[in-house]
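User: Hey, my collaborator sent me this sequence without any context and asked if I could get a structure. I don't really work with proteins. Can you help?
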Amino acid sequence: MTSSDLALVGLGKTYPTPRGPAVIVEDVELEVAAGEVVSLIGHSGCGKSTVLSMIAGLIAPSTGEILVGGRVVRGPGVDRGVVFQTPCLLPWLDVVANVTLGLGGLGTARERRGRAERALVSVGLAEAVNARPSDLSAGMRQRAALARALALEPRMLLLDEPFGMLDSVTRAELQDLVLALGGARPTTVLVTHDIDEALLLSDRVAVMTDGPAARIRAVIDIPFGATRTRESAVAHPAYDPLREQLLALLEERGAVRAA
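Assistant: No problem. I've predicted the 3D structure and written it out in structure-token form, which is a compact way to encode the shape of the chain:
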């Protein structure tokens, strides 16, 4: 486990209900190396976002543990930047203030402002620092949310379907932005329903079974290389076979139920 940046060890989450315990995920095992991008895919409600929330420290595990850099996760931390499906920007603050707000008390005010501005440049929002969220398109607001996470200079980036509510053109632009981060991108865990998005962005794809008591059914290596582009990934001879393999895993009887 010490060689992994992230390790999920026997991870499980159970909620009490009037009908008895509801087991959401159970015995989830996964290791992610430093700088690696791993996607979690599966049908709606299988527990992907629950796993991500536990990694973020927003939800406590019922069983097992999460190790980041060999240390057990006890709660949220600045070592993990999170981007949700909605950008969650405060409408009364301008863009740079929204990004700076996520930095809390890290460094001086000038240092926080510098971090925020650098992050906004990296996501293509250098000209929008003084704009309000209402002045931005949906894609620009999500870029600001990504900048807020990147400004932390986190060890780990956690993406919970961050492009799921965008139109296809804007979604592709944001995917290309993540690809363009290249070696500057931290260790990343992406939750997505989109097989093509998982193939495009990931070094490995972890397929979850359907719930209740979901687990990781298979982990598939994606051999497209760290410097891939959308064009090179789609043109790779393994792209279509891997897509069919992932679809088959999702459709297999006993592994998943219909969404």
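In plain terms: The chain has two domains: 34-59+73-79+155-259, 90-153. You can pass these tokens on to your collaborator as they are.
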